[in-house]
Amino acid sequence: MRIAVLVLCLALCAGCGYNFAGMTPVDMPEGVSRLHLDRVNNPTQEAWLEPFVRSNFRDEFSRRADISWVDREQSQAYIEIDIKNYRVSDDLTGAGDRAVRSDVRLDLEVKIYHSQDDQLLWSSGSVRGSSSYYLAQDQAPVPGESTPGERQAAQEAVEEALRLATDRLGTEF
After folding, report:
1. Residues 29-69: pLDDT tens digits?
2. In 11-163, at which residue ranges do the beta strands (DSSP E only) sit?
């Protein structure tokens, strides 16, 4: 019985045009279909962040928009992504001030510019992605090195921020 109700609800949602967050198709400003991802401005010391943001943004847009990635010369519009902040913070507890939970936060902004006149067509405004992870009892953070949990949380924060930015171009439900 429960399964039948769940299937019915899903069918009704699909029938009325409802899309889950992160699945909504994006409407490009001014009918742009040929894009170039120009720059990812990364003022942090996290060298891995720029290529990871670039790759995930292209994947997110390719999945949700009817666009082609082209060279700057053939593009109708180009995109710049500004990473505003990347931060990892720890919550300390106990007599030894052992970090048990850490949070990763990424703030960024996506901007689309017209290729012919460099006019701003659209901005996501500032968006934040965040994720948390817990250190294992036998795992001590080493300054300058990231743990597997931190890397996973950082990836989740990037993916969330890019999804939220892309959602702002999404169509209404």
Report:
1. 888 999 999 999 999 999 999 999 999 999 999 999 999 99
2. 34-41, 68-69, 77-93, 98-114, 120-123, 127-134
Digit-coded pLDDT (tens) for 105-137: 999 999 999 999 999 999 999 999 999 888 765
Amino acid residing at 50 = E
**Cβ–Cβ < 8 Å for 61, 35:** yes
Q: What is the distance between the alpha carbons of residues 97 and 87, in angstroms, rounded to a whole number?
A: 20
d(CA 50, CA 149): 20
| Direct distance between the N- and C-terminal alpha carbons of the chain, in angstroms, rounded to an integer | 28
Q: What is the three-class DSSP state of 102?
A: strand
Q: What is the DSSP letter of 74?
A: G
Residue where the block lists tokens 């609800």:
9
Cα-to-chain-centroid distance, residue 46: 16
> Within 13 Å of residue 39, how many CA atoms lie on the same side as its CB?
9
Cα angle 164, 72, 42 (rounded to 5 degrees) comes to 45
